[in-house]
């Protein structure tokens, strides 16, 4: 993204945007970045420039104009966008970002991998440090399950 595109995104976020922490089923929080507008073409342009996110049609009353919302849900994508636009934002928005960061940090916990015993920062109910360890854990679990069934 160019500097002018980042500045435009920051301006849209400052005026029509929101960053909040959404509570998940497991009790942790996940960040959500959104910009609302009645102009679909503006949000499509933002989505195309950013290369991330989705556009949703919001529920509205019959007498009101249709409203749309551009949203980014993925943890890494939200923080990547926030990091880009943060220097362009006012103090009130920066304070809001810090509050959301603090809530979302609770999501990360230090754990020990149940396969290779390495320490790592876990998100949610993650117990393996990598995809390789996750596959190995399930291979072991299946092997043990089959052995138990044969023993019965």
What does this structure look like?
- With 152 residues, the protein is of the alpha+beta class.
- The chain has two domains: 3-106, Homing endonucleases (Endonuclease I-creI, Roll), CATH 3.10.28.10; 110-151, no CATH class.
- It is built from five helices and six strands, in the order αββαββααββα.
- The strands form two sheets. It has a four-stranded antiparallel beta sheet with strand order 1-2-4-3. Strands 5-6 form a two-stranded antiparallel ribbon.
- A hairpin with a 5-residue loop joins strand 1 and strand 2.
- The longest helix is centred in the last third of the chain and has 21 residues, at 131-151.
- The radius of gyration is 21 Å and the shape is elongated.
- The termini are far apart.
- 13% of the residues are buried.
Radius of gyration: 21 Å
Number of strands: 6
Strand content: 15-25%
**Which class do the helix and strand fractions yield?**
alpha+beta
**What is the overall number of helices?**
5
* The CATH top-level class label of the largest domain: Alpha Beta
In whole angstroms, the N-to-C terminal distance is 62 Å
Oligomer: single chain
Summary, kept brief:
The chain has helices at residues 3-16, 40-50, 75-85, 91-105, 131-151; strands at 17-23, 29-37, 54-57, 68-72, 108-112, 119-123. It is α+β, with helices and mostly antiparallel strands. The model has no long low-confidence stretch (mean pLDDT 86).
